[in-house]
Known about the structure:
Elements (H helix, E strand, L loop, with lengths): L2 E3 L2 H4 L5 H13 L5 E4 L12 E5 L3 E7 L7 E4 L3 E6 L2 E6 L1 H17 L20 E7 L4 H6 L11 E3 L9 H9 L12 H11 L37 H9 L4 E6 L5 H15 L4 E5 L2 H13 L6 E5 H11 L6 E2 L2 E2 L4 H11 L9 E4 L7 H10 L7 E5 L28 E3 L1 E2 L4 H14 L15 E2 L8 E4 L3 H17 L7 E5 L2 H13 L4 E3 L15 E5 L8 E6 L12 H12 L2 E9 L4 H17 L5
Parallel strand pairs: 1-2, 4-8, 8-9, 10-16, 10-17, 11-12, 11-15, 15-16, 18-19, 20-25, 21-23, 21-24, 22-23, 24-25
Antiparallel strand pairs: 2-3, 3-4, 5-6, 6-7, 13-14
Helix pairs in contact: 7-8, 10-11, 13-16, 13-17
The protein binds adenosine-5'-triphosphate (ATP).
The site of adenosine-5'-triphosphate (ATP) has 21 residues, from helix 8.
GO molecular function: 3'-5' DNA helicase activity; ATP binding; ATP hydrolysis activity; DNA binding
EC number: 5.6.2.4
Protein name: DNA 3'-5' helicase
Amino acid sequence: MARLIPQRSTCLTQMTQGEKRFSERLEQKLEDDYLVWYRVPIGPRQQRPDFIVLHPRRGLLVLEVKDWTSESIVQADRRQLALSTARGLIREPNPLLQAHAHAQEIKAILEADPALRQPTDSRDAGQLIMPWGYGVILPRIGRQQFVEGGLEAAMAGHRVICQDEMPETVEPEAFQQRLWAMFGHSFPVALSYPQIERIRWHLFPELRLTSAAGQFGLFGDETTAEAGPLQIPELIRVMDQQQESLARSLGDGHRVIHGVAGSGKTMILGYRAMHLARSQNRPILVLCYNPALAARLLHVVRQRGLEDRISVFDFHRWCQEMLVTYHVPVPRRDGADDRQAWPEAVIAAVERGQIPRAQYGAVLVDEGQDFEPDWYRLIVQMVDPASKSLLVFYDDAQPGRDSPARPAFSWKSVGIEAAGHTTILKLNYRNTLEILAVARDFAQTLLQGAAEPGGDSLVSTDSAGRHGPLPELLRTADAADEARQLLQMIRREQAAGRPLSAIAVLTRSTADSRDWQGRLEAAGISARVAHETGGSSLYLEGATVKLVTMQASKGLEFPVVLIPGLGTMPGPGEDETEEARRLYIAMTRASERLIMLHDRDSIFSRRIRQAINQVQEQLGSGGG
Ligand SMILES: Nc1ncnc2c1ncn2[C@@H]1O[C@H](COP(=O)(O)OP(=O)(O)OP(=O)(O)O)[C@@H](O)[C@H]1O
């Protein structure tokens, strides 16, 4: 079955009867390796052909669908058609001309990339590496009517599929023959997966990921598509097909998306938030659990100038905002903020009608695994009941912030109608294979059997396959030597051209972060501490090493992660499994390089050493 993007079920309401029927045929009659896009904007001019069909061994086809009947067509020529409608006589451009124009545009976009052109020494030098074609679908006009009505003079017969050529019973081969007859010039081709990714990168600028923009690289790129000559990066990074299909299929209603750590959940949340901000006027709320992640997301929203449209908060901060805005006393205890009591205070104020319901056009929740059932009951009420636009991203495998014993709940019990819409993103793009393998090997032994509400094991994540250096474990003589070696590592990265902002030191506690900040600054290295309760300034100051506790690092990522203090893990009186979870989260924050240090041996340092040796053996010396 062909993959239709967006998923057919999500765009049926926008489709004409003819489009519904034709899209069904495409799904039924084409094999798995066909990609089909329905009214997805292409290139810088954001034109929307009805259908684009791409097949690795056939090429690319652009199709327009018209639900006209032969009776409604009064006159037709190569340029336009006159149609008799309820609104009187109207003129429409010839759809074949439209399809041709879209196909030409696609061809021009793709041919701008030398990697998608025939080699200079070939007969067709400079031409696109694959055949391309265009055509028209007339789901309400039979072939005989088409011929007898003289429509052939307006549209070449071989470029048209008529009603009687697309019944449900049509043989797949016959249906496909009709499609491939629409090519002007066919030749053998076998597009590789990277070539298809490249084609998607060119056609759909909004799916591009830029490494320059870091973790949420997606957001920066759309605008650059129109400005200046096209810069094609050496490494093409684009949402994968499953991510794209998901991102484009999101609509109104409640929706829960499951995905492993690093599988692009936050990226898709960002895509959706930006899309909503452009397409509707009501305020949009993005919620997560971790203040440092909220700070990161807010930074990105600000960069795009969308902070007036999209509010970003960690859940407790949002509760505080609600209480303050609606003059509800903010709970305090012993002279200090009582954060834990804020959600309850908001829930009660909403019940009393002091805080209004339905304040947002859409609510998007990241880190949904960390939210309590009561919080969901509250959030559901905050969404406009007309759209019910609530999107929750949930990581079954990442441990919740408290313990695996936290009671599971059903979505229905908290008012979320998410049945029948389960999507699972399984590929981890964040970590290199080496980092993920070591983290997994470490966690496997210590967290054996630990499973989360979704039933997935903590360590079931698959790597997207990117290679990098093996994680390093440095044994130091004592605490002073540990500090010296950590500084040395930062300097090594700096010397290799790595900006300080790409480096994070992950610690056991905020007090430890402060200690490290003192040591780094004494050595002339600027460093910022992320506070447990609000790290909003963390990302504003660029050239600084980030100091984050392991617990607060969830959802974040940094090219280089340094973890000191492994020699005291697990800490005295700490639960070993909990500590292992924390360390696993910390290790998997690293997207390129992971360096751990210990000044004495501990259960964890020994396990990590074994894990590194094991992975080194498996992957061959050097780790690729
Ligand atoms: N298709 C892709 N190709 C390349 N990189 C990708 C792709 N999808 C996601 N990434 C990158 O993977 C990293 C992780 O993405 P993201 O933070 O959205 O994951 P996540 O599922 O939210 O993770 P977590 O649950 O741990 O917060 C980011 O650097 C993102 O840019």
